[in-house]
Amino acid sequence: MNKPNLQLCCFLFLAAVFLQEAVAQGNLKLNLDAGVTYNSLDYNLSNRVDSRYNGRWGLAANLSLEYRFYDSFFVSGGVSFMQHNFEFERTGSREGWYTKSRNNYLSIPVLVGAYLINNPFKEEGLWLRVAGGAYTGYWLSMNRKGQYPVFSELQWDGSFPLSEKVRERYDFKRNENQLNRIHYGLQGQLQAGYSFGKYGIYASYSYLYGLSGLQKNNVNDRDMFHKTSMINIGISRNF
C-alpha cells in the first residue's frame, strides 16, 4: 500500500471512530433542508453607461452534519447545492437588451454557533440558534438566455430585426470570459425549529457574501461578487 492510500485509510478510520463516539454520546445531528435563494451582485459599473445588474431567485438544497462539542455550542459542515442567478440589463437608449444567467454551484460550508433558546440535544420544544463561518465551492454550470443587438438584412417576411434572442450553455472548457470556477466567502445563519424526540423541523435563513470574484482577472476594479440570501425549510434527526 502506497503512502497516499495509507493516509486515506488512517483518516477514514479516525473519522469512523469519532462518529461512533459522537453517536454514543448523543452529540450528533443530521440536517436536511431545501428552499430558495435570492442573489444580487456587488459590482462597479462606473465606466459603463446604461447598464445594471438585477438580482434573481433560484433554488437551494443542503445536507449538513452537526456536532455539539460543548454544552450549547456546535460545529457543522456539509454540502450545499445552490443557484446564484442574476441578470445583466441595458437601460436608456439600449433598453430591451439583456442577459439572464442561471448559475449552479456546489458549496461546502463550515459553521460554528450556539443555541440561544433551548437545546434540541437535551430537550424537546422550540429552539433558536445562530451560526457563522465560511464556505468554499465550485461553479458547476451556467445557462444564459438573452436578447442582443444584431446587424441584419431584410428578411423574407419584410421584417428588419435589430435584435436576436439567444439561449446557450456556457462552455467552461473554453472559458472565453475567464470566469473563476472556485468560489469562497463568509456565511451567517439563523435557525428556528421545534424538536420532538430524535426528530425535528426547522426554518433557516442564511446570508452569504462572496470574497472571490466571478472573473479570474480583475480589470479596472470591475469584478463582481455574489451577495446571496437563502431561505430553507428542513428536517433533522439526532443520533
Automatic annotation (TrEMBL):
**Residue ranges of the Outer membrane protein beta-barrel domain?**
24-213
Spell out the Pfam families in the cross-references: OMP_b-brl_2
Cite the entry's keywords alphabetically: Signal
Keyword Signal applies: yes
InterPro entries from the entry?
Answer: Beta-barrel_OMP_2
Q: Where is the signal peptide?
A: 1-24
Quote the protein name from its UniProt record.
PorT family protein
